[in-house]
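Consider the following assembly input.
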Amino acid sequence: MRNRVAALVAAGALLATGCTGDEPVRVLPGGGPVRAPVINFPSQIVGLTVTPEDVSKVVEEVRRPYVDSLAVFSLREEELLRATLQISRFNRLAKPREGRFRGSILQLLGSSRPLELRVGDQVVYSTSGNRQDQYIWFTDEGFFVLSVHQDYSFPRTLLRRVVEQDIQL
Amino acid sequence: MRRATIGLLVLSLLGLGACGERDRPEQRLRAALSRTEKESKLFTYVEQVDYQPPRKERPNRPARHEVPAQRNEVRGSFEDDMRYSVVYRAGENDIAEGVVSDDALAVRVINIQAAVANNRTAFERLGVLQSTAEDTDAIKALLEGRWVVDYTAAPPLAAIVNREGVLDVGSNPAQDAIYAFQYFLRSIEESAGVIEFNPDAIGYNPADDPWSADADADLRAKGIIRFDIIPPPLPRRGGQGSVSEEPGTSHFRKMAFYVRGNRVLKVVEKIDIEGQRDFRRILDLDRGSDYHREMLRNAQEGGTRDLVRERTMSYEVSRAGEPVTVEMPIGDAVVGTIGRLLGGGDEAAASPFSAPRGKDAPADEEEAGPDTDAKNSLRDALAAAKTLYTDTNDYRVATPERLKEELPELDFVSDGPSDGPTKIGVRTPSPDEIVMVAFSPSGRCFAIREDNSVQGKGITFANKAADANMCRVAEFTGGNFSATGWD
């Protein structure tokens, strides 16, 4: 099961690999050390159980210039993994308000041109591939990657609920 | 030198300077489209199609089916890209409405009789669904004009392109309205460029402009900028030994965008084969090359790269950027499985929101035959009866007299006999059941039954050989009826 989570977040982790930078990424298990994002995320959402994942082994070799912490949550329906949520907090080198910067992150997803959506007041970019849909959105503090398995029946309901969460990074 | 001068002149005629300047109107238009697409808004989409006869069928090409004259209107509102609502109006009647909220789709047929008259094929399909689908209650509720909610049937987030790589416009106006901005962007990509409307430009010809009245409207004074897309030139003759390319919809499309304050107010389109500039010279002035004359003749007969559907369209935006709330009609709705009736896949092309196609369209698999009139009369009669039933939940109100009021063009008698396609025998064995018969000149008696009782089976069909004086409801028993149709 952990391998499935790792596979689902791999694309998100790869977001960092195409960039230059010397600092290794600091991967933080749920409730980790000092620079961990403090995330007030519910334990249940749209009936799915939310669990913080330790993905340190997946991404500890990854280098990136603009993220200083990263957390990953799995969202399960009983034992079945339905989705993962990757939350990355920008460091001071990031330029989240610049379209080109955001575009470069989206490009690193490596999929076709993303579809731009508005969900509430939030712009969300959607891509599909490898039996999952990915939804990516940005705030001034970081960016979010929600990967939802295509067999899951309520991806948009889940997306809206996650977007509406007041997540402080 | 002379050639360079001509080149510069051509560029200036088109309102295009250097490369950067050429892109500027397109960039401004794209920015306005992007902003408006993302905003909350109300919209009205209107499509007017004039009658188009069937065109010559060509090998390995979609059938050029008959397109009936039709005015389709879709009014709607967008709260955001995953919450919106639409009302589909065909001609003078509101037909159906739909609400999308995240993964959920709610649908209601507003006027059953008008809906059946608008697109018989779509309702036959629903009738078959009612008989075969697991969720018969949902389809039944839909046919009774009640709201039905399917929590996993929201249309795709993006329009689906067909095998030819183009957006399939025309089969489902609600879908066309929902994905209108994708269509606009694709139209820009297929064009030869975008220019700002300037009736004083030396290259402007009002005869090429379906909206030439704008020249006197002083749009600028109203803060409105109009952008026009430039249709690509007709394909050139192929070289020796090669086949010339055929023109497609993009060559016959004229489209104008009205923008104020970086917001799109209105988009208008006219797709017209004979209005293409080179073709118009042939038709109006009897001037033009033999190559273009042949291309015009071919295009008129259906020899085009894609299915050219001639039409006029307008899309008007109001209250852009203001808060809009779209709510699901959950209160009295039936929860069930209805599929993607609003967008995506075959179901969208045969739903209450789909526009009619000609009688020889591929979707209308049944060809006109000697029994068509009798079958059509029965369908119309059942639709009228359902209207009465919806008001009372009792088919016994569907008396011959009341049915005659609903459908004056048909005659109704209790039980029978029916001696022709326009004379319907009717019987209501119970409040939930109605059976009707019509005699066909082919010598067969056709029957249609709906049973809404708990043990009922929805709409079923039957037919048998009969004399005109023996075409009665009493001649049919439950065992004669089939859920899959008359054949």
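Residues 6-350 of chain B form one domain. Ask yourself how this observation constrains the way the partners meet.
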